[in-house]
Amino acid sequence: MGEDIAGLIWLLGVLLALLSVPALAGGSVALAMLSAPRDRRTPVQGSRLMWGAVLAVVGLAVPARIAWATHEERFYKELEPGMLMLAGMAGGSLLLLGLGPFVSWALTLPDRFAVRLPRPLRLPARRLAGHQPGTAGGVAMTMVATAVATAVMIVAAAQTAQERSFSPSQAPYGALVVQVSSDEEARVARAALRQEIPSAPIVQSEGTGKGYLLYFHNDLAGVDPHIGDQALLGYLTGDLSTPYDEGTAVLVTSEDVGDIPLDIGYSLDTPSGETLRRSIPAIAVKPADPGRTDLFIPAKVLRDLGVGLTPNRLIIDPAFHRTSAAEQERLDRRLGVGTPSYVERGFEASTGWLFVFVPMILLALVGALVATGSVADSLRWRRVLLRVTGGSGVRLRSYAVCRTWLAAACGTALGVAAGAATGLLLAWPGTAADRYDPLPRVAFDTPWLPIAVLVVGFPLLAAALAALLPPGSGPRVRPS
Asked: Which residues make Cβ contacts (< 8 Å) with residue 459, sequence separation at least 6?
């Protein structure tokens, strides 16, 4: 009964967190519209800016506190990182809610410096300063969408770096690997490989049988060893002439570690569960791929210790044969579903974040176009436009393009600033360990270049779309 109540509470918490994100983001648009002055000479109310600042500080403090709580490299309980991530997202949404009134304030800034702006931007800057609520709402929509897009880029970069660092490939790029679990499966798989790829040598890797465990001390704890013969060693190093000794292990690494003894702990399938230890010499050699680190142990060493071994992989070295997709498909048909095979393609970063990023960019474009389209030019402004432009359709379109660029730039600047701050904080719960052997966090490159492209390129994209739209028809007034 208690577990059912706890599960219900957890489910309600998730639903509230998920609903709070769009609710607070929509509230930011509403606050921007409520804070919009009716003309360019009326300032934004100070009380709205003050309360907006309070909400923004609280919203920034929430993900900051969560980042501090998850900065340790330790195991977090199941679902805990996800809940903390949702709470951080709710805090980031509260930050956007607080920035709502500042959207209206930001739209007045170009008017204050209009004399210093290029001539084509002066009239649009003055017009945006006297914006209506719809304009502020559209710019706030752009701010919210670009903030989410920026935060998603940063969190995705952090998670990708973490996964890439601790997802080492099991084979060099392009190698064909057939996974087996017994001598019989290895025999059948070897025969299938001979039929499909008769000219390529087959390398066999072995693993410990059921009831046997290996422990590596020194600095190699947790390393998955490659157990086999001289052919496997040549495959790992990319050099068939690598020195091979049946009693010597080989650490294949690009680091300068020198020759070190390898301390092996192993347990046999005995009633007492006894754990034995044996130290064997080990040498270090350079790999063909500088990014790989492998540990090779001759199979004879472990057999002499009484450790049972069984085949676990059959490998076609890409240095001898590059397996095509058609060959792999024919091989899979011969092997059946019980013996999987794959061609190593290295680490492939997830692209799931694009399903959030792309819709947010489209939403930001809609917001920018709504913002400028909602500026219903009064008769007086239309007369000013016609007088300034001389009734030229090209100059009218230029006015609309510049106005769109300014509105998009204001929303993008606020959104990217908020999204960058939130994304850097959410990177901590986004990379928190959710298993018992926590992996240390790795440094990641914040995608500042894509963020800069977003800051510069998005207003230009919005302006380009505005240039494709009709400039609108104004009253027929003879230019003077």
From this structure: 368, 404, 405, 406, 408, 409, 412
* Residue 161 contacts residue 444 (beta carbons within 8 Å): yes
Q: What is the pTM of this model?
A: 0.72
Residues 254 and 286: beta-carbon distance below 8 Å = yes
CB atoms within 10 A of CB 432: 24
Q: Output the CA torsion sign for 167, 169, 174, 175.
A: negative
What's the rounded Cα separation, in Å, for the pair 395 and 411? Answer: 25
For residues 110 and 102, give the distance between their C-alpha atoms in angstroms, rounded to a whole number. 14
Determine which of 8-17, 289-298, 390-399, 406-415 has the lowest per-residue pLDDT on average: 8-17
Closest CA to 304 of 287, 280, 282: 280
Q: Residues 318-336: pLDDT tens digits?
A: 878 887 778 778 887 887 7
Please provide residue 445's backbone torsions phi and psi, each rounded to the nearest 5 degrees: -85, 110
Tell me which residue has tokens 């495959």.
235
DSSP string, 380-409: HHHHHHHHHHTT-HHHHHHHHHHHHHHHHH
Whether residue 98 contacts residue 55, with contact meaning beta carbons closer than 8 Å, is answered with yes
CB neighbour list of residue 182: distance below 8 Å, 6 or more residues apart: 310, 311
Q: In this predicted model, what pLDDT tens digit does every residue of 188-217 receive, in sequence order?
A: 888 888 888 888 888 888 887 765 666 565
Q: What is the sign, positive or negative, of the torsion defined by CA atoms of 22, 27, 32, 37?
A: positive
Helix axes 354-373, 133-165, angle to 10 degrees: 160
- In Å, how far are 78, 83, 429, 434, 446 from 439, measured between CA atoms? 15, 20, 14, 10, 20
Q: Which of 260, 168, 256 is nearest to 220 (CA)?
A: 260
Backbone angles phi, psi at 407, to 5 degrees: -65, -45
How many angstroms separate the CA atoms of 301 and 266, rounded?
12
What are 162's two structure tokens? 């973490």
Neighbours of 74 (CB within 10 A): 9
Q: What is the pLDDT of residues 241-276, one digit of tens each?
A: 788 888 888 888 777 666 566 667 666 655 555 666
pLDDT band of residue 143 (cuts 50, 70, 90) is very high
Q: Which amino acid is at 75?
A: F
